[in-house]
Design a protein that fits this description.
23 helices; 23% strand
Length: 696
């Protein structure tokens, strides 16, 4: 009996155990199989948190692979509030280091027990200070910060980024999706007591690198000369663009006011505006180039045809339009050289509004150029149906139409290259490592469009040379190269009267050099200069200073003889400590000088140059901290680069390789000192002579 009872009890216990095991396994099966994903998600929400980290953006280079924008590693401080012993004390101590109010830090600690940012992208000294506090529960995470090593150089082209590394303005915005890296996240883990103990980082993929068409050296020259002009003229704003007319590549694009993209938030919004692509203004007399281009292309006039400019006034649809001077009979060449409004209007009237409008559109006005930068304006051009009877009298002289600097330089480049309109662009290529990415969208290469016949372009180039040699652009005349261009003095509307102001103008000059095979087109636009306010005296000298530095840097051969006596006079007229660059003197108009100062041929110029060189090479400002390097055997481009890097003013004479220099190698000079370098065919090696012969 007892055995039977024991057997029954054993069966009961076994049954109960079986039921318990069945229930447990059933529950486990339910949780693991049916509710696994739900509980996993709940556990992850409790135990881990995914934090997005700023991605590593690609590097932005100039055309010679010099870095203009890069991402550098920095540290960001964060807290695990559950591990902090005294949150109030920690917030108080951290507040004094990271300059964030204590109550803000405490609110962050209370918002999450597992993770809270303290301050992101700290400078090294603040990282060291936070580490010195030795607070429990305070950690650091590696991030990336955008850095612009050249500060404001090409800032309007580069753009800037926000704290989360999102691009704003310039290339940073235009190519944000390609430059910006991906999958930059960290996973923060915590145990049951909400103590941070581990973390993993997702695989980061850096963004594509961008190679621009800009040249750092040319960009520096453009910005330096624009800044000097702004200081001299006290103008409100200004822009300079340097373009290769044969490709549409932009070599430099400068604006004023400028800003530092490393601290973009501190700059007013108007400073960050890329005026070269966004600012719309009436072009004034520079638009006469389009008027004549259309007329020549349609064979309605010729350069030697004479027009009666009616003593400076003409009536169009009952409105009297006055010229800036009382001109009488002028040939078409003289109309452009002297910038006669009446003459341009008469040519446009003969051409007729429909054809004129057709050419204006063909040159790209009234539409986007396709530039690969954000914020471009298409300008203002009313449809032909909306023209008034007075329009044919206003538009030919650059009124009643709005253009942007990038539109105007693109159109003038078409005249320079023989009649082809190229799409302007600043991006040369995108790279991922060594792989060059295919050009798509706004980066895709497009074929140029013919807008005028080559014969028309050649005629215009000759007339534009006359503007520089004998007309309003005399101060743009280059020493060593031929040049062509057109001045502009666009009146602005006076808000008080609603009429054109006689003194508040936009002074501009657009031109190219050399004439036979243009290497660069340069646009200069100065908004509201004080004092002298016309394009000839204000903008043309800036074109000259930029061109005379850029052309030797690009190793463009000189195609007209130098005048060494004028160079000698430039040195003699400058005092040793006035700090004025040589280019300021050579901006002077030398037309009308005595015949004995002119050279009749390259041979004569070369002979006179060699005879005058000892006098030309006068001592530079000595006694400074800069050591003059040895330029022996260097090219013009190499010498220009070396001088710009050291802060010296190069004066380059001749062609080929450097053979002589003053001051001598090793001399100590001050920043801004002038260095004269003679170029020619190096003679056989000889011992150095007293006149500082360079070694070959």
């Amino acid at each position: 009996m007892q055995q039977n009872r024991a057997h029954v009890r054993l069966l009961i216990v076994a049954g109960v155990a079986l039921l318990w095991i069945t229930a447990v396994f059933g529950r486990l099966s339910y949780l693991q199989l049916l509710r696994h994903s739900d509980y996993l998600a709940r556990a992850q929400r409790q135990q881990q948190r995914t934090i997005e980290i700023t991605p590593k953006r690609g590097v932005i280079y100039d055309r010679n692979m010099r870095a203009l924008a890069m991402s550098v590693p920095v540290k960001s401080a964060f807290a695990v509030p559950a591990e902090i012993v005294d949150e109030s004390l920690a917030a108080h101590l951290l507040s004094g280091v990271v300059n964030i109010p204590q109550d803000v830090l405490q609110a962050r600690f209370e918002s999450s027990r597992s993770f809270a940012w303290i301050s992101r992208k700290l400078p090294p000294e603040k990282v060291e200070a936070v580490e010195g506090l030795n607070l429990k529960g305070i950690y650091f995470q590696d991030e990336n910060q955008r850095f612009y090593p050249k500060r404001d150089l090409a800032a309007h082209v580069l753009g800037f980024v926000d704290p989360d590394e999102k691009g704003f303005g310039g290339i940073e915005s235009e190519l944000d999706s390609q430059i910006r890296g991906k999958s930059a996240k960290i996973v923060v883990m915590a145990d049951a007591r909400q103590r941070w103990f581990d973390g993993s980082e997702a695989q980061r993929e850096s963004g594509a690198d961008v190679v621009l068409t800009l040249d750092e050296k040319i960009q520096y020259i453009a910005q330096r000369e624009l800044a000097a002009a702004m200081e001299k003229t006290h103008a409100m704003a200004g822009s300079v663009i340097v373009m290769n007319p044969n490709t549409g590549e932009i070599l430099a694009l400068a604006n004023w006011p400028k800003f530092n993209p490393n601290a973009a938030a501190a700059a007013p919004a108007e400073w960050r505006m890329n005026r070269a692509v966004s600012a719309v203004y009436e072009p004034g007399s520079t638009f006469k180039l389009i008027t004549l281009a259309a007329a020549f292309d349609q064979n309605v006039t010729r350069p030697d045809e004479v027009f009666d400019c009616e003593n400076g006034a003409i009536i169009i649809a009952g409105h009297r339009i006055h010229d800036h001077k009382r001109f009488g009979l002028l040939s078409v060449s003289e109309i452009l050289a002297k910038s006669s409004d009446v003459g341009a209007i008469k040519i446009a009237v003969r051409l007729g509004p429909p054809k004129f409008y057709e050419y204006i559109r063909a040159f790209g006005f009234g539409s986007l150029t396709g530039l690969d930068l954000p914020g471009e304006s298409k300008g203002i051009l009313r449809h032909l149906d909306n023209w008034t009877p007075v329009s044919i009298g206003a538009i030919p002289m650059g009124q009643e139409i709005g253009v942007t600097p990038i539109q105007l330089i693109t159109a003038v480049s078409a005249i320079a290259n023989g009649g082809l309109l190229y799409r302007p662009h600043v991006v040369q290529e995108l790279r991922h490592g060594k792989e060059v990415l295919p050009a798509e969208g706004s980066l895709a290469v497009s074929e140029p469009k013919r807008v005028i016949r080559p014969e028309t372009a050649a005629t215009l180039r000759q007339l534009m040379e006359g503007v520089v040699l004998n007309g309003t652009g005399a101060l743009a005349r280059l020493d060593g190269w031929t040049a062509a261009g057109k001045t502009g003095s666009a009146q602005k509307i006076d808000p008080a009267t609603g009429r054109y102001s006689p003194t508040n103008l936009i002074a501009s000059f657009t031109g190219f050099a050399p004439i036979s095979n243009p290497a660069v087109t340069i646009l200069v636009s100065i908004d509201s200069p004080v004092g002298l306010h016309e394009g000839g005296p204000v903008a043309a000298p800036i074109f000259k200073r930029i061109a005379e530095q850029v052309l030797p840097y690009l190793e463009v051969p000189r195609n007209v003889p130098l005048n060494p006596r004028l160079i000698q006079a430039a040195y003699k007229r400058q005092s040793a400590n006035d700090g004025t660059a040589l280019e300021d003197f050579t901006a002077t108009d030398f037309t009308g000088q005595p015949d004995e100062l002119q050279t009749d041929s390259n041979e004569a110029a070369s002979k006179e140059l060699n005879q005058s060189l000892p006098e030309v090479m006068m001592p530079a400002e000595e006694g400074g901290e800069i050591t003059v390097p040895d330029f022996s055997g260097k090219t013009m481009r190499d010498v220009t680069e070396m001088c710009l890097h050291l802060g010296l003013e190069p004066m380059l004479v001749g062609s080929n390789l450097a053979t002589e220099q003053t001051p001598a190698v090793g001399a100590k000079v001050r920043r801004g000192a002038k260095v004269a370098v003679q170029f020619g065919t190096p003679p056989p090696s000889k011992p150095a002579k007293a006149r500082h012969k360079l070694k070959n």
